[in-house]
Amino acid sequence: MKVVCVGGGPAGLYLAILLKRQDPAHDITVHERSPRGSTYGWGVTYWRGLLDKLGEHDPVSARAIEEHSVRWNEGVAHVGELTTRHHGDEGFGIGRHRLLELLADRARALGVRLEYESEVPEPPAGADLVVAADGVHSALRGRHPEHFGPHVTTGRNHYIWLGTTKVFDAFTFAFTETRHGWIWAYGYGYDDGHSTCVVECSPETFTGLGLDRADEGEGLALLEKLFADVLDGHPLIGRDGAAWLNFRTLTNRSWHHGNLVLLGDAAHTTHYSVGAGTTLALEDALCLAGALRQHAALPDALAAYERRRKTELLSVQSAARYSAQWYENLPRYIQLPPHRMFALLGQRHSPLLPYVPPQLYYGLDKAAGQLEPLRRLKRWLGPRAARALHARSAARRN
After folding, report:
1. Could you tell me the CA-to-CA distances from 358 to 8, 130, 325 in Å, in that order?
2. Which of the four pLDDT bands, split at 50, 70 and 90, describes residue 41?
3. CB-CB neighbours of 333 under 10 Å
4. d(CA 154, CA 247)
């Protein structure tokens, strides 16, 4: 099969690796519009479950990724002058540049052609399969908007993606109160000398602090001052004119058209606060490669891939929506004692939490953690109660 993959991100590169391992006779080319070695972003996160999946399908790249990752098993929250720390699941961070480098090297070793500074604005002739892994603004998807049916929902809060030379020893949350409201940061290490630092705030805080009018240097200086306690004198670093954005959640009605199929951010995005973007992109590649192996006919394979991934994504997309809403409604939770606030931060994916008073939810959740019947009741009641309360709230608004 002749495969053309447009987009040299994690999804496109890993799909090429998987397909070459399935059949070395496949003719695979990956086109990347950026120069070799250039990438946006800082570090990305993933969890042990993903690493186990990667190890099952390509142990060589899985070992390389694990060897170049940093890991943590704690979370820490700084709320004003108070701090709380909790033990949690094992998490990993790796620089996006390093991840792409490792995947590109593995793809080349297997015989994949990588073409950098190569724009492919339309599906090339002669390919059996064209993979649109060209991101949220996919040019290939944009040629058939009436078929793919993309839908974008823009989040309320503003955020900016930065780096720092402060190496956090745990996944770190820092909440700082200002005269104009709260502003907060998520920080996690990704190599021996750097961490990612994502800063977020409400529109009112954004304009009140003057971040809408500050140039890059002024903005970074202000953020360094606001988060001085957790940065320990280390600078915040922008890259390529780092800008404040509002997160755009993308969904598509259909994921394939003829021999063209969407992969990764071209197909879907989930809010960064659940830390799942790279994981979902790699899982897309795993699913598509599996469908192509199991189904001889391309239309059947692409349909099976779309059905399975859409189903698998439902719970993650729901969690991401509730996570984004938790931060958009931060004043509802921020005045709790830090250990309780952090506990509800860990429960932010719950569909029931927005409708139950935070103190009451904390008590119920703590009791449910100790009694199995209450845990079962919570799992059964939560989604049903949330749907009923959401419908009632929507009816009131209408």
Report:
1. 44, 48, 14
2. confident
3. 21
4. 6
